[in-house]
């Protein structure tokens, strides 16, 4: 037992002496992770939103049409996705020809009165000859609007026919006004029909918090390149002597992984603490949404996630047999893992095959553990997956080392 404890202390000493190199790598890879996270954030903001520009030609002297147009442009369900450009006929056709708008809407004079009176004077909608996906979606929106108008008209016609049939024609005007008022309220406030639930692709974390946690995982994965010399630098003769003394490969691998993970956790926690103090003291207006908490619980989850990552590094280098081949193998696996685990883009935006691959890789579970910095409790599946990954990778490292010794 004394030999085992002394060996653990030696590994802790060697791991903490390696911290200066890890710190330099953390600064470099942290900047790289920031660039990756910024690019991913911009990709989400700029690539997932449709916005339609529509030219509208209104009659000059029709107050009801202008009032209706102003109401339409202020509706919450439209103003965030459509921009109505009021212009004349020639300018609208020029804009459509140049691809500046997705369509033209011509509103005839007396359109509102004709709708209320049942004359059915149509508005004219012009779409480009070679429509894209945006124009097809806009056409679907127009068809839905025309169907709603048809339902409204049929209701008014049914009411008029019923009143005429029962000899109540003198009440048609009053009832039409009430029915039109009901339909207008329905169209303008149709959002009350739905129970709105906001679903985020980043889960309990905001987009900025998601990329901060993803960036830390990417930094940890990149630190594996610097740990190559530390992992492969153990003297083979020392391992033989330990084996003869009854200290097996599983214990030595576990000690080395534990010591390395502890030193990386101390380094990361110290960097996070310094960054947080700098942000609080030097940038008073810094968003509190981005400030993380270094509680004992979050530090424990950081240590557990880093242990899973370090054990993965040991397994890769042990299987590769040398530092150079280990770095090449680690690079290839990291590229796949960073993408498929949703560190660049949330898994909701990834192809199905990438999602299935990411489920068996440890990076996604490590990121879930890092979310504890923002009081997002990791799932039991993520905790169990990281513990299992650390145990499996440690066993692989021990088995690979023992096979080398037999040879």
Characterize the structure shown.
With 407 residues, the protein is mainly alpha-helical. Helices cover 69% and strands 4% of the residues. A four-stranded mixed beta sheet has the order 2-1-3-4. Helix 9 (207-226) crosses helix 16 (362-370), helix 12 crosses helix 13 (296-320) and helix 13 (296-320) packs parallel to helix 17 (380-406). The protein is elongated. The model has no long low-confidence stretch (mean pLDDT 79).
Order of helices and strands: HHEHHEHEHEHHHHHHHHHHH
What is the mean predicted local confidence, pLDDT?
79
How large is the share of residues in beta strands?
Answer: under 5%
- Helix percentage: 55-70%
Specify the biggest β-sheet: 4 strands, mixed
For the largest beta sheet, what order do the strands appear in spatially?
A: 2-1-3-4
| Number of beta-strand segments | 4
Distance between the termini: 29 Å
Shape: elongated
Task: Enumerate how many helices there are, as a single number.
Answer: 17
Low-confidence stretches: none
Structural class: mainly alpha
List keywords for this structure.
407 residues, 4-stranded mixed beta sheet, 69% helix, 4% strand
What's the layout of helices and strands?
Elements: H1 2-17, H2 19-47, E1 52-57, H3 63-73, H4 76-79, E2 82-86, H5 89-97, E3 103-106, H6 111-117, E4 124-126, H7 133-165, H8 172-188, H9 207-226, H10 228-232, H11 236-244, H12 249-282, H13 296-320, H14 323-340, H15 352-358, H16 362-370, H17 380-406
Parallel strand pairs: 1-2, 1-3
Antiparallel strand pairs: 3-4
Helix pairs in contact: 1-12, 2-9, 2-12, 7-8, 9-14, 9-16, 12-13, 12-17, 13-14, 13-16, 13-17, 16-17
């Amino acid at each position: 037992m004394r030999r085992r404890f002394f060996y653990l202390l030696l590994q802790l000493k060697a791991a903490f002496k390696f911290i200066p190199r890890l710190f330099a790598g953390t600064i470099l890879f942290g900047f790289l992770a920031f660039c990756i996270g910024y690019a991913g954030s911009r990709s989400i903001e700029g690539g997932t939103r449709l916005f339609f520009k529509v030219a509208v030609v209104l009659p000059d002297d029709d107050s009801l049409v202008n009032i209706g147009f102003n109401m339409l442009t202020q509706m919450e369900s439209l103003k965030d996705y459509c921009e109505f450009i009021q212009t004349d006929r020639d300018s609208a056709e020029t804009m459509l020809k140049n691809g500046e708008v997705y369509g033209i809407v011509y509103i005839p004079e007396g359109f509102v009165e004709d709708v209320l009176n049942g004359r059915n004077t149509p508005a004219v909608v012009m779409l480009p000859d070679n429509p894209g996906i945006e124009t097809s979606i806009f056409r679907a929106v127009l068809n839905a609007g025309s169907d709603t108008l048809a339902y409204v008209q049929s209701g008014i016609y049914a009411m008029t026919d019923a009143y005429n049939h029962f000899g109540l024609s003198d009440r048609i005007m009053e009832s039409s006004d009430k029915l039109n008022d009901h339909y207008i309220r329905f169209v303008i406030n149709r959002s009350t029909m739905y129970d709105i639930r906001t679903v985020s692709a980043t889960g309990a974390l905001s987009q900025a918090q998601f990329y901060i946690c993803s960036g830390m995982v990417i930094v940890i994965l990149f630190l594996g390149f610097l740990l190559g010399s530390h992992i492969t630098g153990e003297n083979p003769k020392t391992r033989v002597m330990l084996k003869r003394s009854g200290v097996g490969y599983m214990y030595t691998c576990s000690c080395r992984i534990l010591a390395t993970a502890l030193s990386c956790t101390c380094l990361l926690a110290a960097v996070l603490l310094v960054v947080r103090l700098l942000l609080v003291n030097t940038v008073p207006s810094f968003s509190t949404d981005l400030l993380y908490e270094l509680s004992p619980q979050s530090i424990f989850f950081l240590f557990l996630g880093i242990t899973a990552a370090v054990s993965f590094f040991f397994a890769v280098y042990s299987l590769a047999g040398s530092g150079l081949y280990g770095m090449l193998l680690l690079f290839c696996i990291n590229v796949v893992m960073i993408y498929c685990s949703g560190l660049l883009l949330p898994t909701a935006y990834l192809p199905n095959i990438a999602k299935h691959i990411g489920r068996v890789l440890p990076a996604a579970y490590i990121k879930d553990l890092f979310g504890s910095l923002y009081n997002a409790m990791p799932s039991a599946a993520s905790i169990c997956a990281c513990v299992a990954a650390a145990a499996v990778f440690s066993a692989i490292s021990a088995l690979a080392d023992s096979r080398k010794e037999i040879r």
